[in-house]
Amino acid sequence: MFNFWANVVIAVVWLLYAIVFFGTLAIRKVRRFFVLNWIFGIVIIATAILISLNL
Q1: For residue 15, what are the contacts with CB-CB under 8 A and spacing of at least 6?
Q2: Torsion angle, alpha carbons of 48, 49, 50, 55, to 10
Q3: What angle, 0 to 180 degrees and rounded to 10, lies between the N-to-C axes of helices 35-54 and 2-27?
Q4: CB–CB of 52/11 below 8 Å?
Q5: What does the pLDDT look like over 4-36, one tens digit per residue?
Q6: Fewer CB within 10 Å, N or C, the chain?
């Protein structure tokens, strides 16, 4: 039972991280979108899918 709640906590923390990351990209002044930001975004989305499918 602990394993389920640990996964839920990880999913919530990852969701908050995604909100902060994509929110920062949305409000920033510099409009250039660097390659590293694409990689971070893809990693966030892929990990969120992996976590949600394993719950």
Answers
A1: 48
A2: 90
A3: 150
A4: yes
A5: 888 888 889 988 999 998 898 888 888 777 888
A6: N
**The pLDDT of residue 55:** 61
CA distance 44 to 18: 6
Distance of CA 1 to the CA centre of its chain: 25
**What Å distances lie between residue 39 and 3, 7, 53, 54, CA to CA?**
29, 24, 21, 22
Helix (H, G, I), strand (E, B) or coil at 29: coil
